[in-house]
non-specific serine/threonine protein kinase (Ascoidea rubescens DSM 1968), 282 residues
Amino acid sequence: LSERYGKAVGIVGRGSYGLVKVASKRIPGKEDKLFAIKELKKKKDEKDDHFSNRLISEFLISSSLKHQNIVKVFDLMKSNLDIFSEVMEYCEAGDLYSLISQSHGLHYLEADCFIKQILSGVSYIHSSGIAHCDLKPENILLTINGCCKIIDFGTSVVFCNAWEDDIHLSNGAVGSTPYVAPEEYDEKDYDPRLADIWSLGVIYVVMRIGSYIWATAKETDEHYKEYIDTRKSNLKGGDPTIMISRRNALYKVLEPNVEKRLSANELLRTDWVSSTEVCKSG
């Protein structure tokens, strides 16, 4: 690992999966190249076969995706100590969650810029027959130039293969609870693409207010129930300081009725998103 990608020079993240280290590879006559090395551990009570199949599946999906708003994954390696490591491009500005936490909410221009980039990546993922299924600020990395990069395809699903016309529906709640769509709890089968869109809507609101809007999208959650109860009146009136096209698009994204919820491409074509400018790196 060190021969190919250089020596570890620091730790930039810790989680249940293990550590994320930064490795620096010396290139004669050029600047050192940095890589992110993510160590991967088995889940509790996970069998070896399931663990290796899960890692290979995630690597095959993530390494096949080529888009400026998706982190580049270069390699999956196993050390002499039986530790699996995924090698990715290094994003020096950290993750979106940390930025939100530090700023206690982003300016709408920042939030609009970021959501358009993330949406662009999601639209590409969906066009490849894949749904992410765990979109959240922690899974969005940032470069110093403000480019958003989607990471972590560990729970993603292939809903349509290249030779198929029909999609495969999902069942059961997947992802981080505050970002999980209501139909994942209420219906047996659901379209994972539309669940991703719901997560995007929650991400946008979290970016703006700096905190979760509800713990779970169930009517037993008082904050979610309040949202459901006041949707119609807010659509008619709402906060006059919020741009009408943005507000209307967000309500169509955070739409409990999946038949009325926007797809990624439909959201890209809304007045709000289509008129949003992003930085050159995005």
